[in-house]
Structure formats: structure tokens, C-alpha cells
What does this fold into?
Amino acid sequence: MKHFRLLALMGTAILAGCNLAPKYEQPAMPVPANFPLQPELTFNSASGNVSRNTVQAQALSPGMESAAEVPWQTFFQDDTLRSLISIALANNPDLQIAVARMDEAQAIWGIQRGEMFPTLGAGITGARQRGPGFGDGSNVITSQYSAGVALTAFELDLFGRLRNLSEAAFQQYLATAEGARAVQIALVADTAVQYFRLRLAQALVGLTEQTLKARQTSYNLVKARFANGVASEMDTVQAKVLVDGAAADLARYIRDEQTAQNALSVLIGQPLPQMKPPPVTFDDIGRLANIPAGLPSELLVRRPDIRAAENQLLAANANIGAARAAFFPNISLTGSVGTASTSLGGLFKSGSAAWAFTPSVSVPIFTGGSIQAGLAQAEAAQRGAIANYERQIQQAFREVADALSGEATLKAQLAARTAEVASAQRFLDLSNARFFNGISSFLEVQVAEIQLFNARVQQVLTGFETASNRINLYKALGGGVDASAVQSKYKQPLTLVDPNPS
It folds into this structure.
């Protein structure tokens, strides 16, 4: 037993041997230190003037919350939307797949980490054997019994091969955990955008129904005037064209409403519940919290996709260390300590102690270039991981910059659309007055009707675009994570600490 304890202590001490992995250095940010200046527009509806200047994205000041720190329950003010997001977080298959992959990666890391420690086993074995004797021709029966604890092919990790493989598996685990966060962020944002898309379709259906009703009333008046010889047949046909166009638009928007419901149902993972609140009007986005952009460097800690890319880079770095260790000797130990006897009754008697110690050393001499190829593969994977990390940063920078551009211009665009609706309504009122007073033909009314309907549609679309852009900015800045929602269902922590010593 003394020899076995000494062997175990030696193996544990050698675990802290050299590490051949290259020293990790975080790549430089491949984007500017600040987001681009944004063209801020101001629209004056009274004069019709548009003024333009440039502004810098708002940085985080002390005590100010970043988007990643604003819970989605706070960012979204619509109670129906909050309920739908909660349902999606509990039922969405994509999120379930992401968390299952995280669990799988955790198990793989556990398997790989277990390779770093000795494998001990205890057992009792016995054997009886009959064979011919020597000389007298008689048969001989022999017995052999043993009991003890055995150490099976324990590799001394002198050059860090096992440690680096464990580190690579751990970093892959962290990458999948960050991937689960990224899926959750995307799910929250997609559910919100799809919800507003449904409300957009409902708003357009309501608008088109109102327009169709108004055009039918106008058509009936024109028909009556035609019957009395006041209006021409062309006026009647033009009025009928407006009714037919509104009916076609209504069918299209009803179809859009149904497809939006189907898409939202897939996101939440169950049939869409009854939603009682009336459709939103998109005249403002006060239902969405205002958030600062901060600096591009802050995306490194906010965005889980960037953190996942860095975890993959760290895994590739560790794999290089494991590949380099393959060039060096492999030392493994096999041993046992216990008792042995030719009779079962004497197995634990005094003088039956037995032990065995079988070290082995293998040195690669000729491997057909496989070891060199393994190192080349690990180094190529590291280069790819660096490029992927830089690409993720650049993509995040662009997403935020695009959303900031929308924030700077969509408010003025929505104000201009609102003024356009008012002007188009006034034009229609004047055209109707001119027509019913016999000053102009119904063609002028037809043009005014079409302009007003299109202006109203564009106003609603711009309101939807404004809300969607604010949601995309929230998502691009890393907002939407709610670890408790994932943990309550899957009981897996998303904040992980490597128990291995660095």
C-alpha cells in the first residue's frame, strides 16, 4: 500500500507539468474605436423643411445601464408581447436544441477531463486450471486467487497533452453555452418583431376595411349621380376601380395576417393564444425603452456570439498544445497492490501481500507524417478561429451601426409620413368638393383616394420599421438574455467557471 500511495502522489505532482500551447493573445479589434457619425434628420411639418446634422452615438456614462443589462421584461412594455416571449422561452425548439447541445458539450468536457486522473479499480479474481503433470503422467489442478486495487494505464501528462485536450473541450462547452445565450437573444427579438409584424398586418387590414367602406359609399353616390344624369359612365367606372382595388388589397393583408400568426405560432412553440388588446397604431415607439449604444469595444463583453467565437479561438489554441505534445514521449503507468494466494481461504492471511508496477514509455519515431499533419491541422484551425472572431466583431459593429442609422433617421421619416397623410386627406377633401360641385371629373378624386391610401399604408409601415429597428438595436447590443428562464427549465447554469487550475 505504501508503494501505491507514493505512485499516486508522483502522478498528481506531475499533472502540473509543462504546457506547450502558445500563449494566448486576444486579437486586436478589427473595427474603429467609435461607431460612425449618424445623420440626424429633423422634419418641420409646418414649413416642410428638413434639417440635417451629424451626431455621435451615445456612450455609456457611470451608472447607466447597457442594453445587455436591461431585461426584456423592462424593454418591452406590451403585456401581450411579454406573455408571448415567456411562452417562447419555455417552448421554442431552437432554444431547446441549443441547450441540449450545451449539455452535450458539458458531458464531452467531463469525459475529457476524466482522462487527466488515474483510473482505479478494486476487485477479486480467481482461476482454477487443470493440466498434465510432468514425469508421472498424472493431472495437476492449480488455483490462483487475488484481490486488490489496480491502476490502469495512467498517462503522466508531462507535456500537457491531456490538459490541453481538456481545456479545448471546456472552451467548446463555454462556446455552446454562449451559443444558447445567442439563440435566446435572437428568439426574444424575433418574437417581438414577428408580434409587431402581426400587429402591422392587423393594422393594414383595419385601414383597408375603412378605405373599402368609404370607397363603396363613394361608388354608390357616383352611381346615383350617373342614374340622374349628373355624372358620366367614366366617373362610375373609375369609382368601381377604387372599390375593386381596395377589395384586392384587403384579401392580401388578410393573408399576411394569417401567415404572421403562423410564423408567431412556430416561434412560441404552440398555437397562438387569443390576443385581446386592439392592434397598435405605430404612431410612436414609446412602448420600447430607449438604450445607449456605448462603444464598439463593449460589444466584446455584451455579445454572446463574440464571446463564443473567442472561446472557439481558445479551444483552437489549446489543441495546438495537444498537437505539439504528440511529438514527445508518452509515459503511462499500470500497477496494482493487494493480496494473492493459491487458495481462497489464504487470500487475506499474513504473507499474502502482492504488488505489481508496469511503467511504459513510447517514443514516436516514424508515424508517416501524421503527427506533423495533426499540428498543421491545429494551426490552420487556429487561423480560421481568429478570422471567425474578427468576422463576428465586424458583423456586430455593422449591425449596431445600421440600427443607429435607423434611430437617427426614422423619427424624421415617421413625422414626414404623418404630415403626408394629413396633406393627402386634405387633397381628397378638396377633390370630393370639386367633383360634387361639378368643377372636376372623378379622375381627380380617384388620384386623391389612391394617394391617401398609399400614404396611410406607408405611415403604418414606417411605424413598424421604427419599432423593428429599435428591437434590432437592442438585440445587436446584446440585450434579451434571461439566464433564469433557461435555468428554471433546464437546470443548467449559464455562468461557468473552469475548475481546472490555470
Summary: The radius of gyration is 37 Å. The mean pLDDT is 83.
